[in-house]
Structure formats: structure tokens, C-alpha cells
Write the C-alpha cells for this entry.
Amino acid sequence: MTSPAPSFYHPAPRAQQFCSQCGHALSHEVPPDDNRVRDLCKHCGAVHYQNPRNVVGVVPIWHDQVLLCRRAIEPRYGKWTLPAGFMELGETTEQGAARENQEESGARIRIQSLLTVIDVPSVNQVHLYYLAEVLDPTLDPGPETLEAAFFKLDAIPWQELSFRSVSTTLEHYLQDRPGGRFPTHHYAIDLRFPD
Amino acid sequence: MTSPAPSFYHPAPRAQQFCSQCGHALSHEVPPDDNRVRDLCKHCGAVHYQNPRNVVGVVPIWHDQVLLCRRAIEPRYGKWTLPAGFMELGETTEQGAARENQEESGARIRIQSLLTVIDVPSVNQVHLYYLAEVLDPTLDPGPETLEAAFFKLDAIPWQELSFRSVSTTLEHYLQDRPGGRFPTHHYAIDLRFPD
């Protein structure tokens, strides 16, 4: 087995050259009754659609503190982030968010409500963050986390956060917290135009 | 080119046998530093993750009527549905919902807010529906629609609707309409246990 760099196929190949069903070379053209170029196999007839992926995560709150994890993986190695990752087959967004928290922080939580739905079309992702109550602050971070820690809400390391979806989600939480109501916020982030 | 049945590869192949990068046969095992079985290529190192897909659509309202489309495709051929379909690469959920409406009904709309986020884990999907105002009720349905029509809100063909995400989204709209506020609703549908 050859060994490409760890980030080489992260998160998954997008350009497809061979049919996953029969192994023949793919064509790249607009199929009949379609309106955009697809990866299609003229040997077996398979059309290999590609679609955006969901990233699911949590905002874990312990009294007046939020639980953050320092990334042990690229991109943004060493930055602080909310526990989150790619949604897997067979789970709900909520189950995926809880799983990611378990893998990355190990804290026991109870998920409360959907806080943000964030389109990030430049990377073909939708990010969904759930507000969560930390039930047991014992931490047991997994291999994707350098360290996990609680931060007072007035001491969030804003300059050391990983992604704009993380910082904006935390901003929405802080704005809603005084009122005690946490409706779902929906917006888009265009990474081509950093603010 | 062989001609499989139109539904044979709908919406896209899930079981993968060959590497899309190099064409070699795939292994199905847990990669190092992972915790579930993946389709991986021992020849070139590619890991072919699979993830849930988003279905994006609209609830198009024209005064006291809702715009529905009768499906010209499987599944649920002939049933009435809200304009919706798979989110594509390079677009936001909102842009995808507007595109699907354009393709399936042709009505000119203005999207207003995110009405429902529905997990459907049994088919590895998340459905997102936007409330939309119809600006011009002229209809121009595309090839995936047998006919498009406006229904009075007290004459929705509940027994002839396509999917539970469609009926529950319409129910939420009707419940919220008297109050004039349309917060985002989030829930899961388990198709293994029809209610």
C-alpha cells in the first residue's frame, strides 16, 4: 500500500475517474434528462452524483462555561473548536453531534435544541450545531483532540478559534443566553470573502 | 451502453466495489485511526467515505393557497409533493430549494425562512424546507412533474401526499400561520415505524 500524506484524501476524493460499480473509466458529461455534468459510466449505466456533506456538532455548556477542543488534525491544527465532524450514514444530525462530542471531548451531555444551520457552499458543506448541557464535566478527549477544556463565556479564545461557523455559533449563543430562548439561526458563510 | 432500469441507480450507488481514483478493487475494513468500516483502496490509499444527503425544498404560498407538484418520477409517482430535490455541489440549501422549485413548478418565488429541518436516517437523508412567497403564479413545470397546481389550505390532498416530511412540513406551516411567526422546526422521522 502506498502512503499518501494524511490530508491527501481528506475528507474524500471528489474527482472521480473510475466507476465504483464496475471499475471502468468514467465519462464526464450531462446525462439524458439532466442539466449538469455528472460522472457517469457508459459501461454499466451508473451515474455517480456528488452532493454536499453535513458537519454536525454541539455547543456544550457547563454553567457559565463552554467546552472547547483543541484540534489534533488538519485543517486548523492546534486551534480551538466546538466538538463537530462529518455526519455518518444511519444517524440523525443530533445523534451525529452527540457522537462527535463523545469522540472529541468525552464529556457526558444532553442535547437541547438546534442552534445554528450554516451553509458553507465554498466547501460544499452544511454545518448544524446543537446546544447541549454538560451533565458530567469529566473529560476524555480522543485522538483528534490535543486537549479539551472549559472556558468562561467571557474568556473564549476568539482569536484562536478554528472556523467561522464555530465563532458565529458561539456569538449566537451569547446573544440568546440573556433571554433564555434559543431559536434556530440559519445563515450562509462565504469563505471567499472573509469578514 | 447497457440500459439498467431508470430506478436502478437512484439516487446514486452506495455499495462501492472499485476505487474511483485508480480503478483497483476496494477493501471494506476499518482504516487506522478510524472506528467504522470504510471502502478503502490498498493500492492508492484513498478512503471513500459515504455520508447522508440533503433534500432541499420550498413551501410556496400564494395568498391562501399552497403550490404542489404531482410527481412524474419514482418513488411515489403520481403523488402530490412540495417542490424539492437533492442539494447539489456549489449551492446553499436556500439556493438549492429555489432551484428545485424552478425546475419542478416554474413559479417565481421569494424565499422567506427555514421552516423545517427533518432527519430521515432510515434513508440517510436530511430534509430542509423553506417557506416561500409566490410572486407570480404562472406555472411551468419541468419533466419531473406531471402537473403543478395551487390548493386552498383547507383542501390539501393529505391522502395523496408523497412523503411524511412533506405532510409534517405542511402541518407545521398551518399551525404557525395564525400567529404569523414561522420559527424553524427540527425533528426526526423514522420510516421503519409509520405513524
